[in-house]
Structure formats: structure tokens, C-alpha cells
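User: I've been trying to design a sequence by hand for this structure and keep getting stuck. Would you show me what you'd pick, starting by listing the structure so we're on the same page?

Assistant: Good idea, let's start from the same input. This is the structure you sent:
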């Protein structure tokens, strides 16, 4: 079979409309679903150990704060002497963390990495905005003895103390409290790059 190139200047396809006419509204995630896209969140160092035993250390490393919420960045370090003997590590579903937050106004939310409910289970107002805090795992990873994972929290907390709770398979529940004013100030430092 032979291919023939027709370069007579006649096109098979009709010309595309000018770019302005081709514009359509681009889909974007709901503002509560994840960190503001196109925004550099402000870093709020925390460095608080939640729990430590002979096997594992769990800490809140830092928060990354956006205009619409914040991520809690956790750090898990396993004892290197024990981790070499136990190859299962944190990757086992049995070892995944359970995390919760409590706002100063009493609102709470909790999340287990094993069971994240669908969006339709979140109570929302008439505009589709959740009426309760939303928590979502937003990634993580690691290997060897060090693991990191993040949790998205929306909305920003009201003034007052914010408590963060966590529990892992071999560690009992523990918590750390952060003054929400620090989070609200950090939200003002977030840089919107693309709106």
C-alpha cells in the first residue's frame, strides 16, 4: 500500500473557530474538596510529637495553610532496629492511622484511611458547601523507617484552640492542640499564583 501526500493546500478539516469562541468553562473541584489550586499554601511549623514508644514515633510535622483550609502533615518514624525485622511496616492497612480534629466551637470530624465516605454523605447547605468539617487524606509515602502522610481539613477553623487526634494500630489515641489564630494568620500569607 502506498501513501500519497496531498499538499494542494486544501484541508480535509474545517478551520477551527478562533480561540475566543472555543473557550468553555473549565471544570474545577469544589472549593472545599482540596487545597486551593494554583495557590502556594503558607507553611506553619508544628513539630509536635503525638506519641512515641519503642517501635514508632508519630508527629505533626507542619501545616500547609490555604485560603479555604489546611493540610496537616504527619511524620511517622519507625525504630530502625525493629523495622528491619518487620517488613510489613505502616503500609499494612492494619497500621493506617485514624485522625480527627475538634474546632473551638465544638465541631468535630474524623477520618480513617481504611474508610473514606463518598461526597454525598457530607451534609451540605443549599450552595453545596459542607456544614461540617471535611477531612480527606491527600497523599503520603515513604519507605524504610520514615513515612509521611497528609490530611486536608476544610474549612479554616474558628478562633480558639484546634485539637488534632490520632491513633495507630500499636499506639493509643493522642492529641496536640494548636491555637487557631496561627492558622488564620498563615491563611493570609498564602499566595494565589493562578486564580
Amino acid at each position: 500500500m502506498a501513501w500519497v501526500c496531498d499538499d494542494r493546500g486544501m484541508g480535509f478539516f474545517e478551520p477551527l473557530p478562533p480561540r475566543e469562541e472555543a473557550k468553555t468553562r473549565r471544570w474545577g473541584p469544589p472549593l472545599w474538596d482540596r487545597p486551593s489550586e494554583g495557590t502556594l499554601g503558607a507553611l506553619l511549623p508544628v513539630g509536635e510529637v503525638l506519641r512515641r514508644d519503642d517501635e514508632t514515633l508519630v508527629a505533626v510535622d507542619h501545616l500547609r495553610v490555604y485560603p479555604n483550609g489546611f493540610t496537616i502533615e504527619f511524620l511517622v518514624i519507625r525504630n530502625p532496629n525493629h523495622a528491619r525485622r518487620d517488613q510489613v511496616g505502616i503500609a499494612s492497612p492494619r497500621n493506617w492511622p485514624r485522625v480527627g480534629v475538634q474546632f473551638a466551637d465544638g465541631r468535630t470530624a474524623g477520618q480513617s484511611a481504611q474508610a473514606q465516605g463518598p461526597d454525598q454523605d457530607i451534609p451540605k447547605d443549599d450552595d453545596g458547601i459542607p456544614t461540617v468539617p471535611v477531612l480527606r487524606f491527600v497523599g503520603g509515602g515513604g519507605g524504610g523507617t520514615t513515612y509521611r502522610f497528609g490530611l486536608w481539613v476544610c474549612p479554616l477553623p474558628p478562633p480558639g484552640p484546634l485539637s488534632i487526634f490520632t491513633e495507630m494500630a500499636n499506639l493509643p489515641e493522642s492529641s496536640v492542640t494548636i491555637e487557631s489564630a496561627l492558622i488564620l494568620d498563615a491563611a493570609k500569607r498564602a499566595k494565589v499564583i493562578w486564580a
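That's my pick for every position. To get oriented when you compare it with your attempt: The CA atoms of residues 10 and 124 lie 55 Å apart. Helices lie at 19-22, 80-83, 180-189.
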